[in-house]
Amino acid sequence: MTKLRRGFKAEAERISACVRRDLELEEWDPICPWELAKLLEFNVVDLSEFEDRLPDQVAMMRSCTGPKGFSALTLFPDGDNPLIILNDGHGLPRQAADLAHELAHGLL
User: Which of 4, 46, 67, 93 would you call most buried, defined as having the most Cβ atoms within 10 angstroms of its Cβ?
Assistant: First the structure.
């Protein structure tokens, strides 16, 4: 098991409290990752939006399944809002988890 740096848990809890306050949520309400992305000004784009321009690359990314398959990635372009490309070929629960994972990188 990976040991977290000192103070990480308290920092994460403070960030969570701030996010929940900004989203007008109670302490135990679930956080919708798509709403959080809007709040943080992250652009979320489905992988399928690239199919017309990059059909071979999208097909290759969709062909890998399981833990090694493509789920999502975050780009931080200079001067623009961060961009998350999300594999919309996965079910909504998986997409929500993948999006939350990518947003956590941005928050931390």
Answer: 46
